[in-house]
Write a structure and sequence with these properties.
Elements: E1 11-12, E2 16-20, H1 22-32, H2 49-57, E3 65-74, E4 82-96, E5 99-110, E6 116-127
Antiparallel strand pairs: 1-4, 2-4, 3-6, 4-5, 5-6
Length: 133
């Protein structure tokens, strides 16, 4: 696993294009076996591909992933269909208790209005491969 230097922060993923349309919603409903017209709460996971891009670029061994938490702050209502861009940054990496604490933030905006649809904060805990970085 490569640990970024402090001067590299915030480390940015490429902007990710996203679409929420009837096809996308149907895929989520099918995966969840959900027979309702309501947007599934997991729909916001489509905004998180930037987290995976950064983690893969840093060569994190997914077998060492100990824990992940997410918090979502909702902005403008998400209407269907909508498309936009999600921008993810790795804000910080700390080392405590033989574990790397990786703090990400993703901001998804709608293309038409440029309004923030959702802001996501993700924390990944990754077991260190050695005692100290």
């Amino acid at each position: 696993m490569r640990i970024p230097e402090k001067t590299e922060f915030p480390l940015r993923a490429r902007p990710q294009k996203w679409v929420v349309d009837d096809i996308q919603i149907e895929k989520f409903h099918k995966a969840l076996r959900w027979n309702t017209s309501i947007l599934p709460p997991t729909i916001y996971s489509i905004f998180l591909s930037g987290v995976f891009e950064i983690v893969n670029d840093l060569k994190v061994d997914w077998k060492n992933l100990l824990h992940a938490t997410q918090a979502f702050e909702y902005g403008e209502p998400l209407s269907v269909p909508t498309e936009g861009t999600a921008e993810t940054v790795l804000k910080d990496v700390k080392f405590r208790a033989k574990t790397y604490w990786m703090q990400f933030e993703t901001v998804a905006t709608a293309n038409a209005s440029r309004a923030v649809v959702v802001r996501s904060k993700t924390l990944l805990l990754v077991k260190a491969e050695s005692e100290m970085p």
